[in-house]
Automatic annotation (TrEMBL):
Keywords: Cell membrane, Cell shape, Membrane, Peptidoglycan synthesis, Transmembrane, Transmembrane helix. It comes from Deinococcus daejeonensis. The keyword Chaperone does not apply. CDD domains: MATE_MurJ_like. This is Lipid II flippase MurJ. It is found in: Cell membrane. It is a multi-pass membrane protein. Residues 1-35 are annotated as: Disordered. The chain crosses the membrane at residues 119-139, 159-180, 187-205, 211-231, 293-313, 341-363, 375-399, 411-429, 435-460, 472-493, 499-525.
Length: 539
């Protein structure tokens, strides 16, 4: 999805940062028992929750300690390394590396890790240097001709944060190795280390552009370093080397089309940022509101959609490697049920309560015209994006089923077409509908991509359409009723949004009531997802 949705999503002087060779064990370790998928999911969700909550705290510090002008220049600067990291690191690596890695024995897995990490480091060094040299052209690509953002400040900070690409790529290698062997704890909590280090830098360092950029790099170092002890403990710590390995070509073949898909999504990101920076369409402060909405949306999307899918992805890969298609279909159905059961009420409640949700960022009510624009833009974008949460939950699950089967070409073709369509919809809808056009465009493209992916999936292994459709026909209307109840309660309360301390009681009362309506309805409909939660509470 774009930006997380725009992706996610609310990543970049050369650092001497290398992996050390832990050395092979004296004897093969005993095979560990198969890990609980439920336990893996809970670990990933807790890590994601910690990451997103600390990310919101980081966003709060950024918004309340720095001027809107500096914040918007910084948001522009980190776009380039974040763009490149998705093309080459986190998303592409996890989705292409794990399926290949799972087909190898222990010795070949270690050799693949050495060879692949060496290649990735070399590529990132070249791109980092190129990004610093080409920064003026990249910033001009991101900003509209009549921009509401300080170009020179954005250019200075872009060059400062570019080394983040190397740090996040090394961190992605560590994450991929740990996740492939279903060691989720350290990799899931690594982003928390990033946010804690960044928050400390925001609070303690001088409130200037260069120190803001340095704090971002400090967070990248922390995210990498916290994963190294786990790699060493599990015997997964490689020595990067520029050496050949047959499986590297398989990984690169998988990465290439995924990179093209990510490139299409990032083209969408660039187009949206140009829209937001266009002074003819939006006032100064709109882009900052957009990034605030992104931080909150990715909290919900990461916790309730991405986390369950990330936890089950190694199982998808294993079932595909064993050609156990009955298990593969069962995993698909159960993962879709879980993610949509969680995503549907979140979507409805955010739509109903978006002004209060966006107020979590604000330690004081808006005082200036720019702060008012930022608040209203954040609420509008967050509400419209939430329309797309369920469709993009389906897309997230279905895409992983294609990557697990190494049918990357089909998945990325659909994704690329979807993102091109989304750009067209933005161009058509945003000038006339304003902020609502963002969410409608993303929702429409998500629905069309879901339909196309289901058709291709059904042709290959047979899609569990009846189970999925029946589930959606129950949870989506139920979520709408829950959202309506929350909206009515919020309107009845004499509290205006805009400030965190006054908005939290509204979220607790109205959101809690809406969630109670949803869970009560789920119990009445005997949905197995809520029944499983009830059984656990009774233990």
């Amino acid at each position: 999805m774009s930006k997380s949705p725009l992706g996610q999503p609310p990543a970049p002087p050369e650092l001497n940062m290398t992996f050390e060779d832990a050395g092979p064990p004296d004897a093969p370790p005993p095979a560990s028992p198969k890990k609980s998928l439920r336990a893996n999911t809970i670990i990933v969700m807790l890590g994601t929750l910690g990451s997103r909550l600390s990310g919101i705290l980081r966003q709060m510090a950024l918004n309340n300690l720095f001027s809107v002008t500096l914040v918007e220049a910084f948001n522009t600067a980190i776009t380039i390394p974040n763009l490149l990291r998705e093309l080459l690191a986190e998303g592409a690596l996890v989705n292409s590396f794990i399926p290949v890695y799972k087909t190898l024995d222990a010795t070949e897995r270690r050799r693949l890790a050495q060879a692949f990490s060496g290649v990735l480091i070399a590529v990132n060094l070249l791109l980092m240097a190129a990004g610093i040299l080409a920064a003026p052209y990249l910033v001009d690509l991101l900003l509209a001709g009549q921009s509401n953002i300080d170009r020179e400040l954005a250019l200075f900070m872009t060059r400062m944060v570019m080394p983040f690409l190397m740090l996040i790529s090394l961190s992605a290698i560590a994450m991929g190795l740990l996740n492939a062997d279903e060691h989720f704890r350290e990799s899931s909590f690594a982003p928390v280390a990033f946010n804690i280090a960044s928050i400390a830098a925001l609070v303690l360092l001088p409130k200037q552009a260069e120190w803001l950029a340095f704090g971002w790099l400090l967070g990248g170092v922390a995210q990498l370093v916290v994963q190294l002890p786990a790699l060493n403990r599990f015997g997964l710590l490689p020595t990067p080397a520029l050496m050949g390995h047959p499986a590297v070509r398989r990984v690169l073949r998988q990465m290439a089309p995924f990179t093209l898909t990510a490139g299409a999504r990032q083209f969408l990101n660039v187009y949206v940022l140009r829209l937001l920076s266009d002074a003819r369409l939006f006032d100064s402060g709109t882009q900052a509101g957009y990034f605030n909405a992104q931080a909150l949306f990715t909290t919900v999307n990461g916790l309730f959609v991405v986390s369950p899918v990330l936890a089950v992805f190694p199982r998808f890969s294993q079932a595909a490697a064993e050609k156990d298609w009955a298990q593969f279909r069962a995993l698909t159905a159960s993962t879709i049920r879980t993610t949509t059961f969680l995503a549907a009420p979140m979507s409805a409640l955010i739509i109903a309560l978006s002004p209060y949700v966006i107020s979590i960022i604000n330690t004081h009510a808006p005082r200036t015209a720019e702060e008012t624009v930022k608040f209203l833009a954040g609420a509008g974008i967050l509400s419209s994006w939430s329309l797309a949460l369920v469709p993009w939950a389906l897309v997230t699950v279905l895409l992983r089923t294609f990557y697990a089967r190494e049918r990357t070409r089909e998945a990325v073709t659909i994704s690329a077409i979807g993102f091109v369509l989304e750009v067209g919809l933005y161009r058509l809808l945003v000038p006339s509908l304003g902020l609502l056009g963002f969410g409608l465009s993303t929702t429409i493209s998500g629905l069309l991509m879901t339909a196309a992916l289901i058709v291709l999936y059904r042709r290959a292994v047979g899609f569990p359409a009846r189970e999925v459709t029946g589930h959606l026909l129950r949870v989506v209307p139920l979520a709408a009723v829950a959202g309506g109840a929350a909206w009515l309660i919020a309107r009845a309360l004499p509290i205006q949004p805009g400030f965190i301390l006054t908005s939290i009681p509204v979220l607790a009362l109205a959101g809690g009531a809406g969630l109670a309506v949803y869970l009560g309805g789920a119990l009445a409909l005997r949905l197995p997802e809520v029944a499983a939660v009830t059984r656990r509470l009774k233990r």
